[in-house]
């Protein structure tokens, strides 16, 4: 029996060889590029400052003050402390921004389907105007608007509890020694109420019970929580001082922080509104009609039938919008809010350590990025279809 | 057997749409809607009234006409403006031709609403606060667009083969525009420090999107590739660049690029800005093209292999044309974001439209005129972005009907 021996393929026509050779060529090219850039960098750094690549500058005195900080910071502290203060400022804007923009975006997205013509048109105008103007221009607009607030002597008041002036927005805020205790009580009550709610649904569905005792229990817990919030947390109103130059008490949000927060929330809210709208529109109309024919009112249809299905389509783009908000918070440098990027900018201008500071910034933003993506991926898994 | 008789033989109820009934149905149908409508219309009326009163009395609009050349072309030497007018002429000519050729199947090009829009634009041009010869030139540009649209339609009917040279002619137009703006080769050269305003914004966005296109497509292909090193490098680049804010990349471009180059090479600031913008948008473009690549059925690649095509030919002839057509809407969206992101260059010190507005506001003569200036450039940006997004929506509709 003759066996056909396949003719030996020459090396230069063998695709397996080319696959490996191509990768090697690219790898060598990228590595040599890095080596070339690295040698240029060390030579240029040595020529200008005679400094070597290290992170020792973090222990030297910063020498500059920043506008606001969550941790106590003086100009005599070192660079690592000022970078930490900047990081906490950034996180403050990001966390508050994500919460507020979700509320605004979902509200605007759902209002798109309202049966009031005026509300629908206003939502469309809001989304079209905000999406087509650059974010930096909007931030400068909000900052300019807040800069027009009156001076402390003639401060604007809302309900005698909220003060708006050039030094900031003053809100009533809980203060006192027992705040953390009552907050943990409220947290435990919230978790308990979720557990009781699920238990109630379970016994109503499986055992046909009426669920009234649990409902009464939940109402009592709700009223108690309301009483705790109003009376036990010790709200402190801001009060203008005697000399008319400061306001004491309450929470002070500087106008830079407020302008940045409002600008970011409004801008990202328009994008989230579009995402929510397309998510709700992706639910087949048959679901609406079937829910209405079951006798559910429009509000319940949205809450029980349409929105949970729309969530599957909404969450992946929502992830990228949250990442955009986190990255756009770096524009704080234009409104003079000391976030991590603005502080790092001053640091490398003053210390001359450009490469090290850039690496710190890159590491910070990439880890925040990773954290948000991991959370959203977890949420995404939770709303997927559970197929058999 | 039951026989159902219709209740009456009268005609169907007539849907009358008088304004009063429309309002009752849409604005005042329930009690909370009534309250909402009243409160919102009150607020809107108050806002618009105060806006109009501010615009007529308190605002000093002289800052805009006094600085119009700065807004549009920066500190370009005024004796060389004729070069910019030639660039504008070329662009109007090509734009009109493109409009005529794209609308080749429309029966009547100049429908009623198009004529209304054109006459409205001409009226606006007469109100622009520049000298009379310039207003005549601007109206001439609008008429040039109209004439070349008609010419383009005729061309697409008589000689359809020539229409495939259109993208190439846009490319040549870009090169000629850069030559006319920059100078050299016979024209007096204008330093890049003098470029500014809307011209610089448009130039940088267009050059960045053109440069990032090949890089983005290659990164997308690399991310899909089966070769592990290429896939790793592509994913590393895309994820690192997408995780960083644009302002850090632009700062790195301005500050680090001279450090990485051999001594003596000090690239231009605008070149560094273009490098930064290109690196940033190529990562985002790679993700958009990846979406298009994932939409191609595997059968296409298998059929190409069965025909004997190797990988580069498969990609070039079968996969990429389909993938790019699917991702055109997201690519146009990327261009719109890039156009808006050029404002961040104001922070690194370049004088594109936002940057030159800030330096105009620093002029002691126009100190404090923030609202007028920001409103003006806000309207300019909004107009450009809105028109581009409308064009992108029309393009998407056209492509969808072609596919089905």
From TrEMBL, chain A:
<feature type="domain" description="ABC transmembrane type-1">
    <location>
        <begin position="87"/>
        <end position="372"/>
    </location>
</feature>
<dbReference type="Pfam" id="PF00528">
    <property type="entry name" value="BPD_transp_1"/>
</dbReference>
<keyword id="KW-1133">Transmembrane helix</keyword>
<keyword id="KW-0812">Transmembrane</keyword>
<keyword id="KW-0472">Membrane</keyword>
<feature type="transmembrane region" description="Helical">
    <location>
        <begin position="179"/>
        <end position="199"/>
    </location>
</feature>
<dbReference type="InterPro" id="IPR035906">
    <property type="entry name" value="MetI-like_sf"/>
</dbReference>
<feature type="transmembrane region" description="Helical">
    <location>
        <begin position="53"/>
        <end position="73"/>
    </location>
</feature>
<feature type="transmembrane region" description="Helical">
    <location>
        <begin position="135"/>
        <end position="159"/>
    </location>
</feature>
<comment type="similarity">
    <text>Belongs to the binding-protein-dependent transport system permease family. HisMQ subfamily.</text>
</comment>
<protein>
    <submittedName>
        <fullName>Amino ABC transporter, permease, 3-TM region, His/Glu/Gln/Arg/opine family domain protein</fullName>
    </submittedName>
</protein>
<keyword id="KW-0813">Transport</keyword>
<keyword id="KW-1003">Cell membrane</keyword>
<feature type="transmembrane region" description="Helical">
    <location>
        <begin position="20"/>
        <end position="41"/>
    </location>
</feature>
<dbReference type="InterPro" id="IPR043429">
    <property type="entry name" value="ArtM/GltK/GlnP/TcyL/YhdX-like"/>
</dbReference>
<feature type="transmembrane region" description="Helical">
    <location>
        <begin position="93"/>
        <end position="114"/>
    </location>
</feature>
<feature type="transmembrane region" description="Helical">
    <location>
        <begin position="357"/>
        <end position="379"/>
    </location>
</feature>
<dbReference type="GO" id="GO:0006865">
    <property type="term" value="P:amino acid transport"/>
</dbReference>
<feature type="transmembrane region" description="Helical">
    <location>
        <begin position="215"/>
        <end position="235"/>
    </location>
</feature>
<dbReference type="InterPro" id="IPR000515">
    <property type="entry name" value="MetI-like"/>
</dbReference>
<dbReference type="InterPro" id="IPR010065">
    <property type="entry name" value="AA_ABC_transptr_permease_3TM"/>
</dbReference>
<feature type="transmembrane region" description="Helical">
    <location>
        <begin position="255"/>
        <end position="273"/>
    </location>
</feature>
From TrEMBL, chain B:
<dbReference type="InterPro" id="IPR010065">
    <property type="entry name" value="AA_ABC_transptr_permease_3TM"/>
</dbReference>
<feature type="transmembrane region" description="Helical">
    <location>
        <begin position="373"/>
        <end position="389"/>
    </location>
</feature>
<protein>
    <submittedName>
        <fullName>Amino ABC transporter, permease, 3-TM region, His/Glu/Gln/Arg/opine family domain protein</fullName>
    </submittedName>
</protein>
<dbReference type="GO" id="GO:0006865">
    <property type="term" value="P:amino acid transport"/>
</dbReference>
<dbReference type="Pfam" id="PF00528">
    <property type="entry name" value="BPD_transp_1"/>
</dbReference>
<feature type="transmembrane region" description="Helical">
    <location>
        <begin position="136"/>
        <end position="153"/>
    </location>
</feature>
<dbReference type="InterPro" id="IPR035906">
    <property type="entry name" value="MetI-like_sf"/>
</dbReference>
<feature type="transmembrane region" description="Helical">
    <location>
        <begin position="165"/>
        <end position="182"/>
    </location>
</feature>
<keyword id="KW-0812">Transmembrane</keyword>
<keyword id="KW-0813">Transport</keyword>
<feature type="transmembrane region" description="Helical">
    <location>
        <begin position="31"/>
        <end position="54"/>
    </location>
</feature>
<dbReference type="GO" id="GO:0043190">
    <property type="term" value="C:ATP-binding cassette (ABC) transporter complex"/>
</dbReference>
<feature type="transmembrane region" description="Helical">
    <location>
        <begin position="194"/>
        <end position="221"/>
    </location>
</feature>
<keyword id="KW-0472">Membrane</keyword>
<feature type="transmembrane region" description="Helical">
    <location>
        <begin position="84"/>
        <end position="102"/>
    </location>
</feature>
<keyword id="KW-1003">Cell membrane</keyword>
<dbReference type="InterPro" id="IPR000515">
    <property type="entry name" value="MetI-like"/>
</dbReference>
<comment type="similarity">
    <text>Belongs to the binding-protein-dependent transport system permease family.</text>
</comment>
<dbReference type="InterPro" id="IPR043429">
    <property type="entry name" value="ArtM/GltK/GlnP/TcyL/YhdX-like"/>
</dbReference>
<feature type="domain" description="ABC transmembrane type-1">
    <location>
        <begin position="198"/>
        <end position="388"/>
    </location>
</feature>
<feature type="transmembrane region" description="Helical">
    <location>
        <begin position="233"/>
        <end position="257"/>
    </location>
</feature>
<feature type="transmembrane region" description="Helical">
    <location>
        <begin position="114"/>
        <end position="130"/>
    </location>
</feature>
């Amino acid at each position: 029996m003759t066996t056909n021996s396949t003719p030996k393929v020459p090396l230069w026509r063998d695709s397996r060889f080319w696959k490996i050779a191509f990768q090697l060529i690219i790898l060598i090219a990228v590595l040599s590029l890095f080596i070339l850039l690295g040698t240029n960098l060390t030579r240029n750094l040595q020529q200008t400052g005679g400094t070597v690549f290290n992170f020792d500058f973090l222990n030297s005195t910063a020498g500059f003050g920043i506008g606001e900080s969550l941790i106590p910071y003086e100009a005599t502290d070192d660079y690592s402390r000022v970078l930490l203060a900047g990081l906490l400022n950034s996180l403050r804007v990001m966390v508050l921004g994500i919460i507020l923009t979700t509320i605004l975006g979902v509200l605007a997205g759902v209002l798109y389907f309202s049966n009031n013509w005026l509300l629908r048109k206003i939502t469309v105008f809001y989304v079209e105007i905000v999406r087509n103007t650059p974010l930096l221009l909007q931030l400068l607009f909000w900052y300019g608007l807040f800069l027009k607030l009156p001076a402390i002597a003639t401060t604007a008041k809302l309900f005698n509890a909220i003060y708006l002036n050039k030094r900031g927005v003053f809100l009533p805020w809980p203060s006192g020694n027992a705040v953390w205790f009552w907050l943990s009580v409220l947290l435990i009550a919230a978790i308990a109420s979720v557990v009781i709610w699920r238990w109630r649904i379970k016994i109503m569905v499986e055992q046909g019970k009426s669920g009234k005792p649990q409902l009464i229990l939940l109402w009592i817990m709700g009223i108690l929580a309301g009483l705790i919030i109003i009376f036990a947390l010790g709200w402190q109103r801001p009060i203008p001082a005697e000399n008319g130059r400061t306001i004491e008490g309450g929470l002070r949000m500087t106008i830079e922080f407020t302008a940045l927060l409002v600008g970011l929330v409004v801008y990202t809210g328009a994008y989230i509104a579009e995402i929510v709208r397309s998510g709700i529109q992706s639910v087949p109309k048959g679901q609406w009609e079937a829910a209405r024919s079951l006798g559910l009112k429009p509000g319940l249809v949205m809450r029980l039938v349409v929105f949970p299905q729309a969530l599957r389509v909404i969450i992946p783009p929502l992830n990228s919008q949250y990442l955009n908000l986190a990255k756009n918070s770096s524009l704080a440098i234009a409104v003079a809010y000391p976030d991590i990027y603005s502080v790092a900018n001053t640091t490398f201008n003053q210390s001359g350590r450009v490469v090290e500071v850039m690496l710190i910034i890159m590491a910070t933003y990439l880890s925040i990025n990773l954290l948000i993506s991991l959370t959203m991926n977890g949420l995404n898994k939770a709303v997927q279809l559970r197929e058999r | 057997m039951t026989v159902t008789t219709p209740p009456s033989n009268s005609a169907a109820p007539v849907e009358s749409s008088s304004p009063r009934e429309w309002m009752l149905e849409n604005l005042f149908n329930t009690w909370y809607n009534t309250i909402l409508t009243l409160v919102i219309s009150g607020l809107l009326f108050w806002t618009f009234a105060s806006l109009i009163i501010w615009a007529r009395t308190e605002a000093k609009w002289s800052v805009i006409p006094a600085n119009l050349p700065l807004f549009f072309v920066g500190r370009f030497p005024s004796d060389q403006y004729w070069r910019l007018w030639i660039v504008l002429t070329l662009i109007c000519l090509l734009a009109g031709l493109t409009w005529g050729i794209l609308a080749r199947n429309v029966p009547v090009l100049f429908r009623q609403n198009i004529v209304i829009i054109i006459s409205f634009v001409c009226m606006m041009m007469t109100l622009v606060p520049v000298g009379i010869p310039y207003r005549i030139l601007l109206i001439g540009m609008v008429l040039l667009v109209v004439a070349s649209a008609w010419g383009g339609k005729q061309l697409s009917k008589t000689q359809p083969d020539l229409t495939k040279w259109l993208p190439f002619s846009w490319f040549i137009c870009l090169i000629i525009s850069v030559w006319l703006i920059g100078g050299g080769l016979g024209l007096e050269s204008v330093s890049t420090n003098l470029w500014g305003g809307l011209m610089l914004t448009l130039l940088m966005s267009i050059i960045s999107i053109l440069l990032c296109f090949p890089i983005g497509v290659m990164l997308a292909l690399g991310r899909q590739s089966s070769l592990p090193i290429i896939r790793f490098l592509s994913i590393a680049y895309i994820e690192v660049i997408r995780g960083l804010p644009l302002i850090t990349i632009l700062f790195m471009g301005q500050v680090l690029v001279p450090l990485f180059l051999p001594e003596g090479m000090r690239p231009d600031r605008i070149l560094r800005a273009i490098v930064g913008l290109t690196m940033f948008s190529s990562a985002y473009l790679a993700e958009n093209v990846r979406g298009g690549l994932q939409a191609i059925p595997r059968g296409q690649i298998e059929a190409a292999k069965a025909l004997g095509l190797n990988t580069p030919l498969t990609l070039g002839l079968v996969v990429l044309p389909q993938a790019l057509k699917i991702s055109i809407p997201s690519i146009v969206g990327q261009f719109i974001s890039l156009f808006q992101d050029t404002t961040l260059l104001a922070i690194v010190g370049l004088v594109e439209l936002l940057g030159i507005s800030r330096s105009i506001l620093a002029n002691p003569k126009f100190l404090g005129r923030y609202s007028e200036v920001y409103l003006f450039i806000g309207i300019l940006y909004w107009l450009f972005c809105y028109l581009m997004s409308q064009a992108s929506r029309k393009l998407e509709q056209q492509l969808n009907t072609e596919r089905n």
